[in-house]
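Protein modeling request. Please complete all fields; requests missing the sequence field cannot be processed.
Requester role: graduate student
Desired output: 3D structure, token encoding
Chains: 1
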Amino acid sequence: MDEDAFWALIDELSRRPGDRDERLEWLTGRLLRRPAAESAVFQARLERACAVAHREELWRAADRVEGGACTDDGFHYFTLWLVAQGREVYGAVLADPDALAGLPGIRALAGRPRDLWHDDEWPEWEELDYAAQDAFDELTGQEDDDGEEFLDAVEAAEEAAVAAGEWGEREEWELPEERGSLGDRDFPEDREFSADGEFPEGREFSADGGLAGGRGSRSSPVAG
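Delivered output (224 residues):
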């Protein structure tokens, strides 16, 4: 599975009807039609796309969306959601994090308290991180090995991509300990997007388009 094949799956996922569970079921089904090794390559490319998006300026934009409550794990789940919006949206937001404000899925949250956001609306998608492993485990019968064989296969896929010069070694980015103007002191729990479509710091929504996303239930390590 090369880069174009990976994004072709993601782009189709972004256009699929139904809720998150139905879309993940479709993705897992598509991976089950391929050799198990391709599930590991898919995961390696997914983690790489998330790693590329682990940038402070993008975290700050996500943090504004979530009212100053975007944690380290939460930011990883946000990058999974961003990847799932498709290649075009992903590239546009990486090029200009302020473009995030123009996505329909983000605009739909404006002026609404976070406790009223539906799971499928949250701009986080943790469970996307597990679709490839679910397919790999089913294909290999390794459902009781705590994922060790899958993780080894993903690591091998990453090493092969580095050796081929497709991408470099990962560079880790960590959530700043001092969150500056985005800390809880400046974002009380009840502070949300304004109804007129502005970030709390006054950044206006653009007119560009995109897709919606949400939050999963399982936990996973942050991909660097």
